[in-house]
Amino acid sequence: MDINTFDFELPEKLIAQTPLQTRDASKLLIVDRKRKTFWHNEFKDVIDYMQAGDCLVLNDTRVLPARLHGIKDDTGAKIEILLLKEISSDCWEVLAKPARKLPVGASLTFGDDLLKATCIELGEQGERVLKFTYDGIFYERLDELGEMPLPPYIKETLKDQERYQTVFAKKRGSAAAPTAGLHFTEEILAQLIKKGIKIVYLTLHVGLGTFRPVTATRIEDHQMHAEYYYLSESVAKTLNETKKAGRKVFAVGTTTTRVLETVVKNNAGTFKEATGWTDIFIYPPYKFQAVDGLITNFHLPKSTLIMLVSAFASKDLTFAAYEAAINNNYRFFSFGDAMLILPIEAD
User: Fold this and answer.
1) Is the pTM of the predicted complex or chain greater than 0.90?
2) Whole-angstrom distance between the N-terminal and C-terminal Cα of the chain?
3) What topology does CATH give the domain 3-63+160-341?
4) Which residues, at least 6 apart from 164, have a Cβ–Cβ distance to it below 8 Å?
5) CA distance 263 to 22
6) Domain boundary assignment for the chain
7) Per-residue pLDDT tens for 178-209?
8) Tell me: the pLDDT tens digits for 284-333?
9) Which CATH superfamily is domain 67-145 in?
10) DSSP 127-187
């Protein structure tokens, strides 16, 4: 399948540069796969589309202040580092800019010797592996020196760093936010529980895949970057009970979807406690086994994320919904509006 199949024109003015004043003030485009229709709503009304006994699954990863500005020790050159994932104790896979100035053996200093790093390995896609040294606790040094790693299409300064975290962010390790979860407030979560909807959490730490565009002409040739995930025994039990009772599993975001589909695929169609690295690449045609409904933001053209959504809702319906969103001035990407794709069996 040609990558250009998933291209579309997006006016630059629709790329959200800042979050709305309140998280749940965003628009919500409802997509009905059964009737192949869609309509407009507000995110705070998402509660109306789930029923008692359904299960909402959220990604509780927390974004690291993963962007660091360092000085190369031998030349004084400025190098920007983006932490992607810890691959062993104090060894991190990173993106470096400019990467050509960071060969194996090169050393960097960050923030008046508070943090130092040496390049110990070059990756196949231009990434680097750095070994860090420091006094005290690494994450405390990172909190002192690091910046929130906003996507490159966001040019505005984020005044409140917590707005790039979900209200349920807990387990630090991501290089980017699971942005579909940014719309949820404590009040909405409480209302869902009151209605009888089960809320569970899994973890996927967002890594290199978020920052790497698809460069292959044939999407089948694209290789996803592996990301760490964890799904607990208690969450697996709740999900199995939900399915057995004939109720629906709603995934919040493509990250959550990828974990759920990975676990079910690896365990013969059932949920089990699982941890590891997933590089699952979901694109049409794909038979979903775990997810019934999907809440997601609006994604970049030709991205793996819009391919996943197109696999779930169908490519034609997804692109018709995107066209309607553009015509109605929806906000796109990380700080943008949301889409709810209903279960096919929904009335």
Assistant:
1) yes
2) 33
3) QueA-like (3.40.1780)
4) 19, 63, 148, 150, 158, 177, 182, 334
5) 34
6) 3-63+160-341, 67-145
7) 999 999 999 999 999 999 999 999 999 998 66
8) 999 999 999 999 999 999 999 999 999 999 999 999 999 999 999 999 99
9) QueA-like (2.40.10.240)
10) -EEEEEEESS-HHHHHHHH-B----TT--S--S-GGGGS-TT--EEEESS--GGGGG--HH
